[in-house]
Amino acid sequence: MIPERSLEVLRAIVQDYIASKEPVGSKSLVERHSFGVSAATIRNDMAFLEDEELIHAPHTSAGRVPTDKGYRLFVDRLNEVKPLTVAEKHAIESFMQGSADLDDVLGRTVRLLSQLTNQVAMVQYPTLGKASVQTVELIPVSETRLLLILVTDSGRVQQHVIELGEAVDPLFVAELRAKLIGSLTGVALSVVAERLNGFVDGFVAARTGQVNLVLETLYDQVDANRQEKIILSGTAKLARREEDFPSISPVLEAIEEQVVLLKLITEMQTDNHGVGLRIGRENTVEGLSNTSILVSGYENGGSEIAKIGVIGPTRMDYSSNISAVRAVARYLTKTLGN
Amino acid sequence: MIPERSLEVLRAIVQDYIASKEPVGSKSLVERHSFGVSAATIRNDMAFLEDEELIHAPHTSAGRVPTDKGYRLFVDRLNEVKPLTVAEKHAIESFMQGSADLDDVLGRTVRLLSQLTNQVAMVQYPTLGKASVQTVELIPVSETRLLLILVTDSGRVQQHVIELGEAVDPLFVAELRAKLIGSLTGVALSVVAERLNGFVDGFVAARTGQVNLVLETLYDQVDANRQEKIILSGTAKLARREEDFPSISPVLEAIEEQVVLLKLITEMQTDNHGVGLRIGRENTVEGLSNTSILVSGYENGGSEIAKIGVIGPTRMDYSSNISAVRAVARYLTKTLGN
DNA sequence: ATTGGCACTCAGAGGGTTTGAGTGCCAGAA
DNA sequence: TTCTGGCACTCAAACCCTCTGAGTGCCAAT
């Protein structure tokens, strides 16, 4: 077990280090915090913390810096989540005011979060989840082209133009449309494909080519709901922290690699405080070993779920950032609720 | 007038500097290029070029570096645009293979351009231009909600859900839909609003509220065609060139500021070689004083027009980049032609 | 106009010294 | 047992000095 005072010392070290960006030594520690003991005693505690690999000295005659493990313990056991200030809550409200469609809401949200935390923010597009088909439409837009529209009950609308390559017969389109609506309304996206098994048999042989073309497109659209995507904001914030990283280039590269980032945040569990956190090397991704990633989940109409979060140096202000991410996620869920 | 050989010297300086990233001196110049004169003579020419402010010495006993003005003269008068290699052409072809909708095409294009030039690439979304309405659709998606769809002849499809707040009468929707189609098919987006002047008078008074709601949404969508947007790719490429900039942070900030960037590229003329170029401080934007911006125009079905380009250090390989931007722009126009 | 020669400049590399924040440890006090 | 004051020790970073060499500018000779 780690003695009580040592934990206090760790907390103080993390706090001072976050504030000053300088390794912190025993002397400045006793000056800024009232431990009621001398610097020498603190040094003993620090030696203990170092044995436990919770802090680490960049070189012999320097102060101490928290290790990833130290931050982890700090966050899990010592950190009190700082509630948002009134000004911040106000900022959230006004930022989200008057947002229109999904793209718009997510765009605003990610900018908001970046601004609030002063870090790089990210939002994952909502994924398939439990969403189901609200309606399907088929509209001729020219001699040979059809517009296929898919509306899900989570309010997402997708469309795609299908080039049939031959003249469109309005009667046939009407029939196809009616049958599609009949078969799919209310059906969960995840079972659309199997529900349409044998669908093509209901048409005369001459039409099967066209029907299949439409079905292909429909499957693509359903899949597009599965295809995941992330938007980022505030990349420049990373650069302003140049001192924080040996080089920002690998970090930028890593976060530009959407696939990796998606994988990473998808497998993150949101446990404590409703947020998920990976500190430093806990992100197995190379290039992110000096960054922490903080995510929280949000919901879209109860049927789609995805994550939102920030990426910053391991030495970030966890208290504020955790509450910001949590608040914005909650707010986003609420906004999408309508 | 600038003597012939001095121009040759300038060309050599630019080329060597781009290749080596080191200030170039008279000695290495005569070694690497066969001028047929001695270093001392070259020095005289360099003194002349310096008087003309085409080159500049970082400090007394250093080699010379081209100034913005020097690059400008180089590009305008000395630079031969390097044709793309077969491999590069091949890369373009295969990269664009099998692209689907507008988003997808633009996304691929910008990644392609970034990869080809090894710089940050950007694509502006097509703007309004001469596009006109191909068709309008109005679809009930729930008790109280309508889906409005606008298709332009450039193939762009937009949709938006309208919350009417009261139950939707199918007959009314059919009437509204028919009248909209009648009034708008083939009408240029720029005159949609005026064409609908008095449109609401054709309905019974009880419906005017709902009609106006739909019209508002329609106007918004038309405007969204005007609303401009840029996508970027390869931001990390900037960071890998850390030596090129005193600090990348202002550069990143500048390019994250879409509004500024849009304004900048919009006012750029594409003159020589079909591309537009701003070198260093020619970009009045603060933060971009060490970067050059290179753009070329592309068209979407002849009716929408926008720009595509790259941003890099002033010391970039203009020859290759100009041809890459030009080629990709041409290819993009062709791809969108279908 | 061009050239070789030469004195001059100066950024940057190399090397040595100094400084001071900070540690580790110990012997004695509480 | 826990804490404390004291002290020797360490080492990165700051500072300073010198040296080096690439490069210039200018001039007198060709």
Q: How does the SSE layout of this entry go?
A:
The structure is a homodimer of 338-residue chains.
Chain A: H1 4-20, H2 26-32, H3 39-51, E1 55-56, E2 65-66, H4 68-78, H5 86-96, H6 102-117, E3 120-124, E4 133-140, E5 145-152, E6 157-163, H7 170-184, H8 192-195, H9 208-226, E7 230-233, H10 235-240, H11 249-256, H12 258-266, E8 275-279, E9 291-300, E10 304-313, H13 318-337
Antiparallel strand pairs in A: 1-2, 3-7, 3-10, 4-5, 5-6, 8-9, 9-10
The first copy, chain A, binds a DNA duplex (30 and 30 nucleotides) through helix 2 and helix 3.
What do you see in this structure?
2 copies of one chain form a homodimer. In chain A, the strands form 3 sheets. A 5-stranded antiparallel beta sheet of chain A has the order 7-3-10-9-8, sandwiched between helices. A 3-stranded antiparallel beta sheet of chain A has the order 4-5-6. Chain A has 13 helices and 10 strands. In chain A, helix 1 packs across helix 3. The first copy, chain A, has 338 residues and is an alpha+beta fold. The two termini of chain A are 49 Å apart. In chain A, a hairpin with a 4-residue loop joins strand 4 and strand 5. The longest helix of chain A is centred in the last third of the chain and has 20 residues. The interface between A and B is medium-sized, with 30 and 30 residues. The structure holds a DNA duplex (30 and 30 nucleotides).
